[in-house]
What does this fold into?
Amino acid sequence: MDVSILLFYGLATIIVFFALAVVISDNPIYSALYLAITMVTLAFVYFLLKAFFIAGVQLIVYAGAVMVLFVMVMMMFDLKKEKNSFSKGKFANFIKVGSAGWLCGLIFASIMLSKGMLPLANTNTPQAVADTSTKELAILLYTDYIFAFELLGLLLLLIAVGAVAVSRIKGGTHE
Amino acid sequence: MNSLVPIIALTIFVLLFGAGLLFLVSLVGPKPKNSSAKNSTYECGIDVQTTGHSKISVRYYLTAILFILFDIEIIFMYPWALAYGDFIKEGHGLYILGAMGVFLLIFIIGLIWEIKSKALEWD
Amino acid sequence: MGADLFEVSVNLVKMIIIFVMMVQLVPLLVWVERRGSAFIQNRLGPNRVGPLGLTQLLADAVKFIFKEEFVPEKTKRFLFYAAPVVSLVPAAIAFGAIPLSLPINIEQFEMFGSTFGPYRFAFQSFEVGIGIVFVLGISSLGAYSMLMAGWSSNNKYSLLGALRSCAQMISYELALGLSIVGILLLYGTFDFATMIDAQQGPLTFMLLGKEVSVPFLPNWGIFYQPLGAILFFTAVFAETNRTPFDLPEAEAELVAGYHTEYSGLKMNMFYIGEYGHMMAASALMAVFYFGGYDIPFLSPDSVRETFLGWGLSANKAAIATAFLFHVSMFAKILFFLWVFIWVRWTIPRFRYDQLMDLGWKTMLPWALANTIITAIVIYIMRTNWS
Amino acid sequence: MNSLNMLGDFFLSPVGINHYLGLSAILFCIGMVGVLRRRNVLVILMSIELMLNAVNLSFVTFSHFTQNINGQIMVFFVMTIAAAEAGVGLAIAVTIFKRFKEVNIEFFEQLKG
It folds into this structure.
């Protein structure tokens, strides 16, 4: 038994369990907290895949910023346990869950059938150093993807303006 | 993977340490004597007026949204800062400075706009 | 984690020792804080129990343990108990990722009839290649325990305090994250150990292709990044919710912030988390700007040679050197912890709007300016103009 | 090869690209169920985040197993877009909530310009 097998299955179990809890829990605040746990565990999976910088960004952006925003908004709303948290209609629900399960099976089957078609590189290279892989990423990001990078800066500016504008809309009870 | 096992082990150890300590203390300490005055939510000595969660200013979430956007822009600077020395060594210093210059310009415009638009005012 | 049982167990024990050290430092710091505040305010402070009041710590611990375990009604019980436990995790992991001394290289040795080694033990709980990013990410998870505590208490003061401290934390995280960019530009690495290695020796830098050396100053980050250091340290105060930024606990308006409903050991755990954050922040301050475990004008190799000259074996010399440099690191951490306490009892609390203004309108632009200036200066100095 | 054989193969083989992709597929479908079945708009947003994370995971997996760093850059971009999407989505949700005290997605259908 290799440690990495144990690690992968342990992390995968935690991820799937809490992802299910996000969807099933009928209190949205608990949903948000479960999602935060999922995000942190996913960061560990990225560690396992030697994507160190991406793991750090996952921790900072998803777990440390986006989910904090979600939890904050939930607490502001003061949502109680929801009575009608799921959509109605037995047949419709059956189709919804069934189609998701079918999609999952489809992806699984295609993964298993296309096994060996992708030329895999040797991943047993000596312990990748975080700095060098991040530098590689940086060099690509600021040369080949420079235009996309500047556009994302612009997008973030527009989003900031938009968010402020939306929250300026008058009316309602909260100040 | 080498660093992942100790991180997970330490997390589990700390969680167990905290939970175990709380459990042990609950065994040792005196049993609580309950009374309605003691059990009620603390509200400076008066009877509980609100049900707990009152209305909260929207500014908190506005701050949080702006934080996310600026945080991502800062994260974009980390790989840049890391590779900056290498770019200079290869003679592309002006290029990388200009590339980040445009990005920083957008960042600064955003910051100035936020300050001017009074989205960050607290009263 | 290790190749054989010896290495694994040493790493485990090391990890637990570092965590216990962190927890054990908290009562000591509380004592220093109480005595220090008394000293600053011209009082005596706790001096009755034991010499200098030192056994006050024990009395406090016993008191905390024998407190009644009490939960107010209408709380969300699970989250109410989970919040203090969760508050320990970010601080412990962040502190564990920071190197406290040189790594110890152990050569092959014989014990119980079998040979062991060679080993390399890092003087920290674990080595993460992306040190800075990891520590920033982990410490930003501290917001959850506050929000959990504030919401599960079912008390408006708790919730308001939690939201306040959360908004404050995230606002200053921007300035914190941006002030580090200067350090990254300077050293070009995420790794703490590499960063500390770059700070050895006398102050040396490239000026227009020539190497300039200032022999009477150590090569510490503070001389390259004075503005960054000030911004970082200020932001760290706000991150750890310490005075002058302890708005979540403003008694006049919010009672005790997010831990209004907490008592006994649960309350104490929040303090352990807070002090743990302070320790991690002090260690980061030392690593980024004050050379980490570096002792000015003393290189690790010369120290090891000296120890070898005294007739110690190679392994013992390596261990002794590591512990000597650990003392230096620890002294720096303790100094910054004292600065935390010192500032707390010197500067009054900010008002909330002033606090947010300082974070967004003063520190963020200055951190930006620091980044731009550092980038331009590094460009000018490191480019080969000839 | 029958399906039982395939499953046995899957769980007994050492952890490779298939396992990570499988985890990603499961996560994606859980997120999809959340989007389809939940009625709270905030939970729907969270389910979308879950789906985006699943996609990120498969990007990182391919990036690792083909030793190609391009995938990680895509992840970086996806994270940015996801955060921006969450920001705007929450801003709209909060605005509607302060006006109508409602987070149910079925109520949103009745809103008119």
Q: What stands out?
A: The helical segments of chain D are 3-12, 17-37, 41-65, 70-100, 105-108.
